[in-house]
Write a structure and sequence with these properties.
The chain is α+β, with helices and mostly antiparallel strands. The protein has two domains: 2-136, Fructose-1,6-Bisphosphatase, subunit A, domain 1 (Fructose-1,6-Bisphosphatase, Chain A, domain 1), CATH 3.30.540.10; 145-254, D-Maltodextrin-Binding Protein, domain 2 (3-Layer(aba) Sandwich), CATH 3.40.190.80. Helix content is 29%, strand content 26%. The protein has eight helices and 15 strands. The protein has helices at residues 2-22, 40-56, 86-90, 162-166, 184-190, 204-207, 210-216, 246-254; strands at residues 29-31, 37-39, 61-64, 68-70, 76-84, 97-104, 107-115, 120-125, 131-132, 135-136, 150-152, 177-179, 196-199, 220-222, 237-240. Strands 4-3-5-6-7-8-9-10 form an eight-stranded mixed beta sheet, with helices on both faces. A five-stranded mixed beta sheet has the order 12-11-13-15-14. It has a two-stranded antiparallel sheet with strand order 1-2. A hairpin with a 2-residue loop joins β9 (131-132) and β10. α1 (2-22) packs antiparallel against α2 and α5 (184-190) runs parallel beside α7 (210-216). It is globular. The N and C termini lie far apart (41 Å).
Length: 255
Amino acid sequence: MQEFAELASQLADAAGEIVKKYYRQPFDIEQKGDASPVTIADRAVEQCLRDLLETKRPDDGILGEEFGTKPSKNGLSWVIDPIDGTKSFMIGRPTFGTLIALCENDTPKIGVIDQAISGERWIGISGQATTMNGKHVKSRPCSSLSDAIICSTTPSMFDGMPAYYERFHEGKMGHGLIWGGDCYMYGLLASGHLDMTIEANLSPYDFAALIPVVEGAGGLICDYNGAPVTLNSDGCIIALGDPGLKVAVLNKLKD
């Protein structure tokens, strides 16, 4: 696993150089078929990482946001979101990140959250303690949902299912939902700065890397039914810094 983690860090290094080249510089923005934005930086990062993996790990599969799926020949696949939080990147707000995961079949084993502008990199390896810039980090205890700081990226991800997020919205639970943050929220959760995220309609490249990072810091990621999250999950994600909140959260979702 350490060898794979070192490769993941090399990929993050390469991604970061491209990200820094385009950050707060003029570039064209296109709309994809699902109306989400994409930039030259998204595509350049993913193509670079794919080229590196083709050279170093030609039998591994690749799942990326921009260029689709290359089937695995050995049960190992890399899952890449070149810029998670493209809208934040577009306006020069450094809460986006590059997400890189290595999965064995459908289970994430290594995850990297890399924020190239702030120079913060979280690395999670299954069975090991999560690090941020080489130092161990740990999520914080939270004894009650009423004390929890809860974050989500955007209300629009809950379109068609507002009851889920309304249960945690301002004035109804804890400190209310704090909006915005993309993958950076999960790094902050792993480092003990917030207590919970609740999100929906995520794709595997949005969440695969987050699982080893959060769980290696002592936290928990599950779906809305409390089941472990894999590449086959439905994209409804709860991340908890304190796993002891799980029962209360699931009960709240059923209210």
